[in-house]
Design a protein that fits this description.
It is built from 7 helices and 8 strands, in the order ααβααβββββββααα. By secondary structure, the protein is of the alpha+beta class. It folds into 3 domains: about 110 residues, no CATH class; about 80 residues, no CATH class; about 50 residues.
């Protein structure tokens, strides 16, 4: 269902026209509320990643940063030569500590944008955003959690960890990483909400409730009725999708 159709259906529910910009804003708020309540509204994705000791991004980073690291090491050498001649110089001691810290950070702290590659290093924390390369680095992470990781034989692999919005794979190989992320919002009336189509039928109630709230406040009786219908509808859709997923898993388990 297009955003325009959702607005039209909401207008039919409340009997008054709704500005299209308000409607888009209300639809996006409805998407966020559905996602906050039910995992079935999340979007599934799969990323293939090769875990290797020599990932391409590491070679790229080393090639780019090695001249800078070499320069820092030369500067460190000069400071250490000066310290031999003046071992009690506190300024030189502090400069040496600072230079060592700079070198360590350059050698170990790889920017996340350079780690968005198909090859990853084992036992290393990588951002969730690595799994969805369509998302630019300027956009916030939308991946909520990793569902499972499968090896090249389709078998579930347990040697991985997740923490906050990062993941770590503990063995080498090529794996299919299944994840869930929040859906896109709509930017125009010609777009379809990035939700399962069954959820689309609940959005007119939410848009209508928001418009009534904007016009008359939260105490308007229509607001409570429409919002209640929205909650009932999304609960029904969630139950239906969960049942479908259970049946699908049972069928797959027979083969």
């Amino acid at each position: 269902m297009q955003a325009k159709d959702i607005r039209i259906n909401a207008q039919l529910e409340i009997g008054t026209p709704i500005d299209d910009l308000y409607a888009i804003s209300f639809i996006n708020a409805g998407i966020r509320e559905i996602v906050s309540k039910y995992d079935t509204a999340l979007k599934k994705g799969v990323a293939t990643r090769t875990i290797t000791d020599t990932p391409a991004y590491l070679a790229e980073y080393n090639a780019k940063m090695q001249p800078i690291i070499d320069q820092k090491k030369q500067e460190l050498h000069v400071i250490e030569e000066q310290l031999i001649e003046d071992p009690d110089n506190e300024t030189l001691k502090m400069n040496r500590i600072v230079k060592l810290s700079e070198i360590y950070n350059l050698e170990t702290s790889i920017p996340s944008y350079m780690m968005n590659k198909s090859e990853l290093k084992p036992n290393t924390w990588h951002p969730f955003k690595n799994l969805d390369l369509s998302e630019g680095d300027e956009k916030p992470n939308r991946i909520v959690h990793i569902e499972r990781i499968l090896n090249d034989r389709g078998e579930r692999m347990e040697e991985y960890d997740t923490e906050n919005d990062h993941f770590m794979v503990k063995r080498k190989g090529t794996f299919a990483i299944e994840y869930y992320k929040t859906p896109d919002g709509v930017q125009s009336e010609n777009e379809h909400p990035d939700l399962h189509e069954l959820y689309h039928t609940a959005l007119p109630y939410f848009v209508g409730a928001r418009e009534k709230t904007r016009l008359f406040g939260e105490q308007d009786p229509h607001v409570q009725r429409l919002y209640g219908q929205f909650l009932t509808k999304i609960a029904e859709v969630n139950d239906k999708l969960k049942n479908q997923n259970r049946r699908r898993r049972k069928i797959q388990g027979r083969w």
